[in-house]
Amino acid sequence: MAGQISPTRSALLASKAGLKTASGGADLLKRKRDALIGEFFALVKDALAAREQLSGVSKGAYTSLFGAKAWDSPEAVESLSLAGSSDYTVDMQIDSVYGVKVPRISIPERGQSATFSPINVGARTIQAATDFGGVMEAIVKVAATETKLRRIGEEIKKTSRRVNALEQIVIPGIEDDIRFIRSVLDQREREASYTQKKIKAKIEAKAKGQKASKQDAQSGNHGSAAD
Known about the structure:
This protein is mainly alpha-helical and 227 residues long.
């Protein structure tokens, strides 16, 4: 960049202002990244807890399912599974975490409005259906938490790349420009100072010569008068 910049004082001032802006931007991005990292690790705990909850309710639901099939027959279990609605409604809103758009999902309470099959359905089958409703809630919770975790993780990577670009490319480039401009301006100042000294020396030498000539002329005039 040094070869493409005009080595003037105005360019030096502009480069200094650019350096200040880039350094401030890097500091802001680092603070954002640190905050996101803290949020990320907090979410990791939530994600692990959600996974553990899913694992627990899944084991319980499959145990209930095996018991229902053994006591109420597979036909009764299948009848109840077909009787429920195929839609699963959740309330999703978008939150902003340090500028990152993440989903916030609320799971409505499950109603008791299922329409049962004419086939006699026992308590174990109903319990299995209830347990699998809990599995669905756990799956939604895992999905929401891990989606939020993934988006924040992606933003951390993007922010880190921006910080690295500023600290490793932009800021060093501006600093190179500043050093180049200062070097040229210092060289010009030295050359100007040297030129001024030479001019001053010539002026002083000329003045000295003129003074000597004048003195010689005055001495000649005095000699003529004496004759």
